[in-house]
Structures are given as C-alpha cells and as structure tokens.
Amino acid sequence: MGLIAGLALAAGCLTVCAAPVGIASAQSIVALPISSFYQIVADPSVGYLFFSSPDDNEIFVTNLSGQEVNTIGSQDGVEGIALSPDGSTLYAALGTGDAVTAISTSTLAETASYALPAGDAPQDVAVQSGKVWVSYGTGAAGEAAIGDIDLTATSPAFETQANMGNWYSAPELAADPQDSGVLAAADPDLEPPPMATYDVTANPATKMAQGSPSICNFEADLAVVPGGSQVILTCPEQDGFLVYSTADLSQDGSYPNAADSVAVAIDANGDVAAGTISESTDPDLYVYAQGSDSPLNTYDLASTGGNLAARGLAWNPDGSQLFAVTDLGSSYVLQVVDAPAIPPSTLTLTGPSTAQATQAVMLTGSLTVGSGTEPPAGTPISITRSETGSTAVRDFSVSTAADGSFSLSDAPPGAGQYTYTASYAGSATTAAASASFTLTLTLAVTSLSITASPHTATYEPTVRVIAHLGATDTNRTVSIYAEIVGTYSRRLVETGKVNASGDLVFSERLRHSTTFTAVFSGDAAYAAATASRTAYVRARVTESLTGYYRTKRISGKLYHLVHRKKIMRVHVTVAPNKSGECVEFDVRQFYQGAWRGEQTACAILSSASKVTLTVTFAKSAIGHRFRIRADYIAGIDTSNEANDSSWVYFLVEK
C-alpha cells in the first residue's frame, strides 16, 4: 500500500500533519507496445484497461496489471474513448475515420459505427444522459463543434447540436460520472482556453456557462466532479489544478502542487488524482480528498526517465488503484499504483421499517472515523428524505454527540415508501461515508361506524341513521349510501362533514329492508374506510273477515259470530306489494284447554297483493271457538322480512 499522508507519532498519540511524509513509488511498471497515446480508460467490470493509439490506428487492451489481452484494430486515428455507464460498451472517436465506433468490452469486437459527415473529424467522446457526445473539427478554424449520438433512438445516428458550435478547434470533453446531465468542454489549442458547460438532459442541449479562465494557459485535461457541480482543469505551465463551478465557471478552489499539471482523474468517492510533469526527484502524482488542499499522498512516476502523459491518468472507480501512462519519448509505460489507504469512516442509520402515517419516526445513527474512533462532538451529518415515485427531497442537518451518535425525529407527509440517507462528508484524512434505510409508512386505520334505529320494524318505519367518524387528518366528510336488500343497486342518500361529535345523522322512511353504508374516502394520513348496517323491514300483513253477523267478547277477546251454514271469507292484504308471493293461513281450534290446528297450503297473492280464503263449516263445528291469522312467507323477494297478521277470532253457531 502507498504511504498515508501526514501520519506521525507524537507524545504517544497519533496526530495529523499538513504535508505528506514522503514520496511513494508505483507498485508495478509495464511497457506498452504502442507508438502514440491519447487517452486511458479503466473498466473494472471486465478487468480491462483501454489505451487509444492514434498513430497505430488501434486500441490496446490489458488487464488491470498491465498484461496484454488484445488489440482492437481498424480504429483509424482513434483519439478520445469513453465507457457506457454500465461498462459494457467502449465508444471511440476515429479522428481519421470520420466515425465513432462502439466496441463490446466483453468480446472486444466492434458492434456499431456511427458516421460523421465527410471531412468532420471526431476527436473526443463522453457519455451522458443516454447519448454519446462527440467533439469534432470541420477542417476550418473556428468552426469546430459538438454533436451527439442518441443511443435511445431506434436507429442511432450522429446529429449536430445548434447550441454547441463555434469552437476554434475540437474541444476535450468530460461528463459527470453520476450522469446528472452535466457536460464540460475546453479547447486545448488556445490561451487562455475557451470553456463551456452544458445541461444535456434535454434536446437540444442548453449552455449553462461559457468563458475563458484568465489564469490558465493551454488546457491539457479536465474532469467533472461526481454530482456535476464542479469541473477540474489542468493547465501546463500552471502550478496547481484549477476548480470551476459548472453553473457559471467562476473559480471555486484549486489543488496546489509545484509543477506543470497535465492529467486529472476522479474516483467514485470524489478523490482527486492530479498528475504533473516534474523533475525525477519531485512528486508528479498527487492524491487529494475532494475539496482538500493537502494531499493524502504523493507518488514519483518520473523515476522511469519520462513524464506523465497528458490525459494519462485513470482510477479504478472504487479508489483502490491508479493507472498512469508515462511518455518516455519514443515509447510508453504503464505504472500501476495502489491508492492511499484513507482511514475509513463507518456511518450507521436505523429506524423503524414500518410505521403509521400519523406517527413521528425516530432515526438514530452513529459515526466512527479512522480506526474506530469517535469524531469530535458536533460533527455535521446531513440526512435526506426521498419518497419513491416523487422528485421531492427533504434535507436535514444534525450533529454528532460526544460518543458519535446522532438522532432525528421526522413526520413524513403521508403514506408511502421513504428512503433516508445519512452522509458524512469526510475530511482530508478520513473517508466520507453514507448509510441509508427505507421506511414504509402505512395509512392509519380509520374508526368508522354506523347505526340504524330501529333495527327491525314493520312496513314504513322512520329509521334514524348515524355514521360516526373517529380521528382523521384533514378529511371530515362522510357519505351514506342506501341499498335495498336483494337489489344490489346503491344510491347516495346523504353526504357532508360530520359534526363536532364526529356524527353525520339522517332519517328515512323505509318500505323495504335497507343496508346503509358509510364511506370515508381517506386522506394523507388515514386509510379509506366503510361500515354497514342493515335496517330490516317486515312486510305488513292485514286480515279481515266477512260473512259474520255480529261480534261479542269472550274471555276478553273479540269474537266474530258466524252461522254454520254461512260462508265466511278471510281477506288478506300484504304491503308493500308482494304479487305472486306466498301467504299461508294458520287455523286453530280451542280444544281441551289449548289452541290446536294446522296451516293451510300456500295462497298466491294477486297483482294487488291480496288474497281471500273462503271458509265453510261442518255441523260438528257448532259451538266451537276458532282463530285464524295470515302468515306472509318471504320467498324470491327478500326485500322484506316475513310477518304475520294479528289473530282474528270467530265462533260458529247454528
């Protein structure tokens, strides 16, 4: 491993110094069989390094140790090369082939070629927002430009971009490795170098900023910081690496050194590798934590007798290795360097995996840095909350306690899936760290009930219905629907906000058994809910007699007196209309101290919901007491409950 910058033992404890202890050397040096060099790209997904060689018309391929794997030929005048975000495809600008080729990194075979107009010579490529961006010269000074190949198109082809022309010569390109849509360009052939940044998320691309850094001479390399907020520029004959805001190209810092800067590379964590041309006894490779002006480590690459090549740096994206190409004048070598072992940081973040939307959630976490030590109290931790399916992001800032712990209480706005991400920015001597967890917020259960009174009554009762709604967030509206039993046809009978007691009250006169359903549609915190209650309505059965000659009371009951030889008729009406339904008659005789008898067969109600029973008497009935009632039997029509008429009493006489 390379030496860690600035570690010294003083008074029995570990302290951090401002400058590196010494200069580390490359771990391996391998000769490259190429006669020219333009750019190096590392693809750890397949374990390859790619070197473009314009004079050789080829792309040379090695493993991550520099051992030859293959040569991809027929790449006429190849210069700029760039990987797709997933590392599966390498794109190459063929400077004398007037085309951009696509090469499979798994098979190392060319899979596509995208032609530019005749005479337009591509120089550099970068991949961003689903497109390959191509800088190219037209053969006339001041008419170079940038175009694109839309990889999402049915038939991808090169197209020009109206807002990206008028360059003196084809600019070098760099794109945000996090694919935010930021593309940066700089012209290497003018002093000071013209620069521009673009937002390429839409078509056509829009220019964010344009200018020429006055303190920079000819540009040699550039790189966009992960996230797209800054671009780092190398300037030969300039000590240090200049940092510019991509929003307006204002200078936003620098990475100092004491030699000519020619190459820059940034790993996925934002660590910056800055390469220079220096004397053999001086460091020519510096590694910085992002935003720090003190290097974590330095390396001597010039011990081979050459200088670091422009655009000759590449990181293994995980920050474990650096790959550097050194120009020996008539040949090139690859130097593989183990990256500095920045003391790691460990960040944890925990909270409930599920909760109800009405509850505040408590998040807790802890931070350790270096070899398990606690950070100073008050170390800032940023926490973001994002919701699946939404672009809204909420930012929080907390600080660690003396033991490295921190906490946050939050009440998300409603049900959904939320991801909380805690981030520690790190420092010049400790690595950044992040942690996240996902919370599923469910709607709270809503309390909703309904009553109907009376619960059961005979035909045409007035029923009082009360829907009661418990606690909710913002919605206090309830709707009540009525459905006659057996009809499956629902109608809205009442809707509105509940009163201060949480009640919505309404009354209705019923002809049929009716199911009342209360409906609450829910809100951001409480789930939708329904509640039902049925008010049962019995049919009304009325019965009367004809054919009697008078009445009298016997034992407190009113009896109808009937002559034995006369015909008595029992008339029955059922409400509501139950045409075609069944009525049975229950006929009883008072005999030996008890009412004894039986029911008749079914009598069918007429279209007017009436039926008449004709009764004649045997001689033996004289002197006996009888009673009769009609029983409505609920059948196919279930909208009313069965019911009986009152008993009608009669006495048979001579």
What do these coordinates show?
The protein has 5 domains: 1-32 and 213-336, Methylamine Dehydrogenase, Chain H; 34-170, 7 Propeller (Methylamine Dehydrogenase, Chain H), CATH 2.130.10; 345-442, Immunoglobulins (Immunoglobulin-like, Sandwich), CATH 2.60.40.10; 448-538, Sandwich (Immunoglobulin-like); 540-653, Sandwich (Immunoglobulin-like), CATH 2.60.40.10. It is built from no helices and 57 strands. The strands form 13 sheets. An 8-stranded mixed beta sheet has the order 3-27-26-25-24-23-22-21, with no helix packed on it. Strands 48, 49, 51, 52, 53, 55, 56 and 57 form an 8-stranded mixed beta sheet that branches. The protein is mainly β and 654 residues long. The chain is elongated and about 145 Å long.
CATH architecture of the largest domain: 7 Propeller
Fourth-level CATH superfamily of the largest domain = YVTN repeat-like/Quinoprotein amine dehydrogenase
The CATH first-level class of the largest domain comes to Mainly Beta
Total helical elements: 0
User: How do the strands line up in the largest sheet?
Assistant: 3-27-26-25-24-23-22-21
Radius of gyration: 45 Å
Compute the number of strand runs. 57
Anisotropy-based shape: elongated
Give the terminus-to-terminus CA distance.
129 Å
User: Which structural class do the helices and strands define?
Assistant: mainly beta
Strand content: over 45%
Could you name the ranges where pLDDT drops below 50 across 5 or more consecutive residues?
1-24
What do the pLDDT scores average to?
90
In total, how many domains does the architecture comprise?
5
Outline the biggest β-sheet: 8 strands, mixed
The CATH topology of the largest domain is Methylamine Dehydrogenase, Chain H
Helix proportion of residues, in percent?
A: under 10%
